[in-house]
Amino acid sequence: ETGVTQTPRHLVMGMTNKKSLKCEQHLGHNAMYWYKQSAKKPLELMFVYSLEERVENNSVPSRFSPECPNSSHLFLHLHTLQPEDSALYLCASSQEWTGYNEQFFGPGTRLTVL
Amino acid sequence: DAKTTQPNSMESNEEEPVHLPCNHSTISGTDYIHWYRQLPSQGPEYVIHGLTSNVNNRMASLAIAEDRKSSTLILHRATLRDAAVYYCILRDATSGTYKYIFGTGTRLKVLA
Which residues of A touch B97 (CB under 8 A)? Predict the structure, then answer.
């Protein structure tokens, strides 16, 4: 595997379910990101991790809980979501969080909340 | 936050050049201009970036206005594989953070 991978690619869940999205980067980067892309809206940055430490949390509801156990893996734990949380969730990584660094994106997880 | 304005959509014929405009009138002196594109069913991918001077790479060219309030992404010969949403992004460095602020982008349609 190369680049940034995300699993699952598609997920359908009920509002009472608990699920997790997984992201893995094979680029040796130190920073990882979660973005949300809703229909007809710009990408929204949700969380940023640098060397496994959260450095940015953009007022995301607590029903989204990120976890970064090491610099290669990033999770997004989901619980009691709402239908309006249905979106494409994108993971990205970059060499560093500060300064200019190109971000590499995964293919995303298409989430549908029923 | 410095923001960008792009046309919602554009069309181009295959093998012809495409000029994708972006306005960023509130850009600050140290903000870089980045372009990413998102192909169907994929995450965004980096295209090019610049600060003041025009830039060229294997994918595209970036022309930056002298006052930096606008820029243009140039695809020299559009192919069907260039059909995507193109995002012009400014890096928000005003608070010491380095967030990308994505807009809604320009959806490029390439006609065969």
Answer: 56
